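Recap from last week: sequence in, structure out.
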Amino acid sequence: MAEAAVARETLFALRETIARLEGRPIPALAAAAHETLAQTPAGGTADIAKLQPTPAQPLLPIGVDELDAALQGGLPLDALTEIRSLGLRDAGAASGFVLALAARLHARASDTAAAKSPVLWIGDTVATMEAGLPYAIGIRDFGLESQAFLQASPRKLDDALWVAEAALGSAAFAVVILEVRGNPARFGLTESRRLALRAKAAGRPLFLLRQGGEEEASSALFRFSVEPAPAQARPLPDGSVLGGSIGHPAFRLTLEKSRNPAPLSITLEWNAHDRRFAPILDIQCPAFPGEHAAHSGADLSASADRPDRAQAVGSVLAFDRPA
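Predicted structure tokens:
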């Protein structure tokens, strides 16, 4: 009987560990606890504290119902989340989205110690050579105080990974952002798993910013691909819009990795003043006064595998045959 009880406790502990690593909140834990309590004989000495379900993990809601539902409430604040740009030309959009998430985290944690903790941005040399360095004025324009922003630029990727692990282990930062370029061989599933475990143990989020990278296996609970989207016209106090102006920055997001069976695509704009996201329709595109589409009919199909257009025939000169 004692061996059976030990086996049940071991099985429950394994279930709990797996659920915590996967970030699942967890009706299954409560069910397992009830099952173990039911099978414990009267007068048994089972540790009731071990049978209690774990508290819900902290989440960062995006503020958009459709996206928060796909994220099961929001981004986990004790796990690894990956944000990637399709190409280096989209590095600004991916970096801006990450800064917006950090600013929203600071705004929501205004009454906690995380609000006073700085944001740490780690970028290896290869990534910063292509995507550039964070700019203090731009950081402030995205709603994040530059005084609460720290930057590290290790010369090697191995050093950047070490700094990220040490920063997460210290729990001194509200969020750690690790920027890498592409899909380096020295940063694979093993390294991402180690970082995810360190973030889970410290209870702090890690945003992996992959500039110009492809999809690959990682320990991130969620992965976004970010593309720039056309900004809408700037709204005026009377409710109208200023034609031809440039409004809030907009992002085209695709939730590539989640517990949903299919990816979700949505376009959001970021209001740095209110520190909130808002969805916008893809058909809402700003236009300058008097500007009209070059083709007002149906969209033309994309060309593919078509022969090159025949070159125009030039002047033909006649010469006498040689004798």
